[in-house]
Amino acid sequence: MRAVVVREFGGIENAxxxxxxxxxxxxxxxxxxxxxxxxxFVDLVxxxxxxxxxxxxxxxxxxxxVGVVAAVGDGVTKxxxxxxxxxxxxxxxxxxxAVMPEGQCIKLPPTLAFEEAASMxxxxxxxxxxxxxxxxxxxxxxxxxxxxxGGVGLAAIQLAKAMGGKVFAAVASKDKxxxxxxxxxxxxxxxxxPDLRESLRQQVFALTDKKGVxxxxxxxxxxxxxxxxxxxxxxxxxxxxxxxxxxxxLLKMNLCAGEKHRSQRHADQRLSQAQxxxxxxxxxxxxxxxxxxxxxxxxxxxLSARTVRAGAGRYQGSESARAHxxxxxxxxxxxxxxxxxxxxxxxxxxxxxxxxxxxAMPP
Length: 363
Known about the structure:
Layout: E1 2-6, E2 15-19, E3 29-39, H1 41-48, E4 66-72, E5 84-87, E6 97-101, E7 105-108, H2 114-121, H3 123-134, E8 142-145, H4 151-162, E9 166-171, H5 177-183, E10 187-190, H6 196-207, E11 213-218, H7 222-229, E12 232-240, H8 264-275, E13 285-288, E14 295-298, E15 313-316, H9 320-333, E16 357-360
Helix pairs in contact: 3-4, 6-7
């Protein structure tokens, strides 16, 4: 089968289209014929060999492929050939076929387009888990999204709005304001202003009557994290997703005292609210709840009503390097906000050269 293969850790140039053995499903496994896979910043990190674990070389990158079940192994009861599915794979997605145990596969509704499912697979479940499980968002709360024009950032904006939140999108370029506005952001926080440590808090205080934000969703780290901590409200929650700005920040614990102190009583209250189901919905799709690997189906009219809109540039399978390079170039053009990419990349139509496509997510 054709696949994108990395034989040596390094840059994008080390990934090339080649031939690899087609996997055969063993007992309890599902074989997927891949139709779409999202291209994300984490792929670049894994290719470089600097991810939190290193796959044995050679390896096929690509997380969470989407496609049609081609075959199943003995003992598989929940899937049959022809079903649409998402594989919860850490790698091996950039190939014509991929295989995973049945328990790591999610059945998809046939009405959900492959490209849209692939676009939602990583960024929306990350944002969903951050907001609902870790952030315990409640209707009416304020949310500051850092790296707001990246894949997770745009997903966080849409999901926070669907859950009843008021969203402030932080952007480093005025050219990107329309992108976050279109995603549903209520207000803009400008990261390009001087003295960010003070100016970010001043902007947030102006939007919240000096109360600060209830939740910060941070994909960036670095100096922006340092500034955002000071903009938290009483009992606020800061959710760390990544460090795309390059520096892993250290938290000064004096900032957690006084007005930044988060009481156990408040935490228990929020947890009980979540358990009572007081969160507004607005997402139709199959989202991964990382607690114990449990898959939660958050299904209502949100996607069909276009409350959330998954979409990105589309490339054929042989254009892996081109798709990743578009991702990487956007990061290079915005060094102060890695993880905050532009909108959709130019769409590329798959040809007969490959039967699967790569969906280039904003970095």
